[in-house]
Design a protein that fits this description.
The protein is an alpha/beta fold and 208 residues long. It is 34% helix and 20% strand. The chain is built from 6 helices and 10 strands, in the order βαββαβαβααββββαβ. An 8-stranded mixed beta sheet has the order 3-2-1-4-5-6-10-8, sandwiched between helices. Helix 3 links the parallel strand 4 (64-67) and strand 5.
């Protein structure tokens, strides 16, 4: 399994994958923060770099998990779209058929069911560009025909232990304004979605 990790929670995803016996290749921002493990290969580099992605996929994994946030180093307003364009092209070239993407409640058809204050923020605050980029990724992966894609849409992230996940369809209807989910629970779901075909082609909104 390959993990392209450029935001929080890397240790939770790696723990979940290694507990289940996966051999993991991870592209991360800061390798020094990760404890070496058997079956874990770490790469450092930007996921915008095609050569770096090709190195990560040199031994093609069974699937890819991406957990991207907007890059703080000024990589441009379409950072996540550009990264997924690069990753999908490499996946097609290497014959990798499964991608699980971390999105958020408020992306795509789930936007109308986002708490009204958050809807205002993603329309008028600095978050607007971030969610516009998420929406562009969403539109792109919906059209993908050679890779099976799952788009995970967690509500507000928090700490805490892994708990059962509650699903609110692809649109988040009925989720309420105060729902949250632990990062460990998100990691557990995304790894499960990478292993199985149950969620292929869907964008489940998830909470605890």
């Amino acid at each position: 399994m390959a993990l392209v990790q450029w935001c929080c929670g890397v240790s939770y995803f790696l723990l979940e994958l290694t507990i289940l016996g996966h051999t993991v290749t991870a592209l991360v921002r800061n390798p020094d923060a990760i404890q070496p493990k058997d079956g874990l290969t770490i790469f450092k580099g930007t996921p915008l770099n095609k050569a770096v992605i090709d190195s990560v996929f040199q031994e093609p994994p069974t699937g890819v998990i991406t957990t991207l946030g907007h890059n703080r180093s000024g990589s441009g307003p379409h950072y996540m779209t550009d990264v997924h364009t690069t990753i999908l092209a490499a996946m097609r070239a290497h014959g990798i058929r499964k991608l699980v993407v971390l999105q958020a409640l408020g992306v795509g058809e789930s936007k109308p069911n986002l708490f009204f204050a958050m809807r205002w923020m993603i329309k008028y605050s600095s978050m607007a560009g971030h969610f516009a980029d998420h929406d562009m990724v969403d539109e792109m992966v919906r059209k993908e025909v050679k890779v099976n894609v799952v788009r995970a849409r967690p509500t507000r992230l928090e700490g805490g232990e892994k708990k059962p996940v509650v699903f609110f369809g692809n649109d988040g209807k009925g989720i309420g304004g105060f729902a949250a989910i632990s990062i460990k629970s998100v990691a557990g779901f995304m790894v499960d979605a990478a292993e199985k075909r149950d969620w292929d082609g869907s964008s489940p909104v998830i909470a605890n």
